[in-house]
Write a structure and sequence with these properties.
Largest sheet: 4 strands, parallel
Strand content: 5-15%
Number of helices: 3
Oligomer: single chain
Strand order of the largest sheet: 3-2-1-4
Radius of gyration: 13 Å
Order of helices and strands: EHEHEEH
Length: about 110
Amino acid sequence: LIIAFDFDNTVFDYKGLGDDYSDIIQLLKTCKDKNMTLVLFTVCTTPNELQKKIDYLYECGIKPDYINTSPIFEGSTKPYYNLLLDDRAGLEEAVQLLKFILQYEQN
């Protein structure tokens, strides 16, 4: 499976409201352990901003396979994924579905 995820308010408290994204971070780490492909799709205005996001992910133990690029359409920024984790695209439902998929795989 190819799991795409956003950064701001999906794995990081961008708005500084004290939101906890540790459950999603752990879920992404579990996906990586299960050899799923992780794709970070995020908006950055500078290379420095993107590097800070990558550094944060590495500190959390998340190593995306692709960053702002498609794992299927080589050389393209066209998003491709089987499941998207994004605060603006049904994050709660996608998290529940991913948890179900991981539980199903264990059985």
